[in-house]
Amino acid sequence: MTKTKIAVIGVGRWGVHLLRNFLAHPQVNVVAVVDPNPERLAAVKQQFNLDENILLTTEWQALKQVPGLTGVVIATTASTHYALIKDALNQGYHVLAEKPLTLNPVECRELCQLAEQQHSILMVDHTYLFHPAVERGQAVIQAGKLGDLRYGYATRTHLGPVRQDVDALWDLAIHDIAIFNNWLNQLPVKVQATGTVWLQGGILEEASFLSAPSPQSPLADLVWVTLTYADGFQAYIHLCWLNPDKQRRLGIVGSLGSLIFDEMSPSSPLTLLHGEFAQQGNQFMPVNQRQEVLEIKTGEPLQRVCDRFVVSILQNVPPVISSGRVGTDLVEILAALTASLNQGGKPIFLNLTHQTL
């Protein structure tokens, strides 16, 4: 069996997990690992007992000398994504990029167009979209088990790490926005954000709509997000990286109950809370209340991401669930939220046309 030759660029905190999965994939031959830090290269060589034939290099350009290279996996800082992805696509490689695709929607759209011109796969590692609980949750909602959908909410808090390149919005929100879009099978038409800066910088100032805040900008530690969808559904997200009350919880409320995705739950991450109101005169009485723990498939979400990338390459069919277009939509939303944040919560309207989620 001919194996797909893959190079991994960046083996930091997340890149090392991508490397682990591709090394274990039966249809992949990892032929090169790139990282600017020689100590990281030495560490992964020892950790995974890498074959001597695997090229370990600090220079991305060295990959151009690797014969038969098919795809590259980019897990570097987001500010480097655009240049690396553009170069890789121009070389004819398929690309799997860590989220976000870039920090600028204009760059994202350009990369998507380039991938189409090159007939190359451009996929973004939005790992949550491959989480079995998220897949099951979408099926529950689409089956109408919540009744009429009313609103959604999410909390993503922890104590560090505190980023110095992007704020809490860009660091944390993309996960919950991706899940809401996936579960609702639509994209927001209006967004709002307000935030507070305690640690790095002063008062938030008006900035460009086009991209993430620059490292010189004040970086919000606490952000409140509101997403409004075309049917009137609203989702509220609480983001903070200096709260020791670690939460990873998202819910959607409907007329027949609530669906809760709680990663911190010791029992099951996905729960359906049944319950509704029966009206008696001018009183509303709770009825049909019960809790249903939903069974989900086993399997590491990241392993499923890696496998989807390989299958997309072999079949030459772009992935629908986490394509470059999906990644671009999410960057568009984050950029709009940044504009709102920097204008004190001013509503920003969106007209995203890509609706295949």
TrEMBL record:
Domain Gfo/Idh/MocA-like oxidoreductase N-terminal: start-end pairs: 5-126
Pfam families in alphabetical order: GFO_IDH_MocA, GFO_IDH_MocA_C3
Gene3D superfamilies in the record: Dihydrodipicolinate Reductase, domain 2, NAD(P)-binding Rossmann-like Domain
InterPro entries, per the entry: Gfo/Idh/MocA-like_OxRdtase_N (IPR000683), Gfo/Idh/MocA_Oxidoreductases (IPR051450), GFO_IDH_MocA-like_dom (IPR055170), NAD(P)-bd_dom_sf (IPR036291)
Domain GFO/IDH/MocA-like oxidoreductase intervals: 138-259
GO molecular function, one term: nucleotide binding
PANTHER family from the UniProt entry: BILIVERDIN REDUCTASE A (PTHR43377), GFO_IDH_MOCA-LIKE OXIDOREDUCTASE N-TERMINAL DOMAIN-CONTAINING PROTEIN (PTHR43377:SF6)
Name under which the protein is recorded: Putative dehydrogenase
The organism of origin for this protein: Cylindrospermum stagnale PCC 7417
